Amino acid sequence: MKYMPEMILFSAADGGGQGGGGGRDENITISKDEHTALTGKVDSLEKESARSKLLEAENTKKLNELKAEISKITTERDGLRVKFESLQSSVKKSYLDQLSDEHKNIAGQLPTIEGLAEYVKLNAKQPPAGTDSGKPGAGYKDYTSVKWDDMSYDEKEDVRKKRPEMWKKLYKEKFGRNP
């Protein structure tokens, strides 16, 4: 007699099938090795499915984290945009304040702050005619960053006569009291 490997018989009548037989009573016989191979493939597919679901959950979590980060960055960007526009507006206003009314209309049409700065540099308000600014060495000196001790006696007297509020401020900084 021939050697027959162990065989497994599946019958549609025993109720163990999935019902995919189309209604016919068929018996399917496979070898034990084929059965083992098929159950191994089923186990492998189930493990792969579980791994796939785990990766999908991790990817969904990462996606949600990235969406939250995008939202945070977008909010931060919008806040910075508002601050930038405010700063740009105040810089533009300070440049325009240095111009005469007729130059303000022209300068207001310049698209960039850099262009406005150059325009202001060329067209800033000139001191009134008849002042001593035309004389060499004479002119307006900015004393806002100068200390009392850095000025000569003549400079202090000049500031006292021409800019009394600045002189009082410098005096108070030096001596700690009003003059």
Judged by helices, strands and strand pairing, the structural class is: mainly alpha
Strand order of the largest sheet: 1-2
Q: What is the tally of beta strands?
A: 2
User: Which bin fits the share of residues in helices?
Assistant: 55-70%
* Poorly predicted tracts of residues: none
Question: How would a textbook summarize the main sheet?
Answer: 2 strands, antiparallel
Strand content: 5-15%
In angstroms, what separates the terminal alpha carbons?
132 Å
| Mean pLDDT across all amino acids | 81
Order of secondary-structure elements: EEHHHHH
* Shape assignment: rod-shaped
Output the radius of gyration.
45 Å
Count of alpha and pi helical runs: 5
Describe this entry's structure for a reader.
This protein has 179 residues and is mostly helical. The chain has a domain at 144-179. It contains five helices and two strands. It has a two-stranded antiparallel ribbon with strand order 1-2. The longest helix has 65 residues, at 32-96. The N and C termini lie far apart (132 Å). The model has no long low-confidence stretch (mean pLDDT 81).
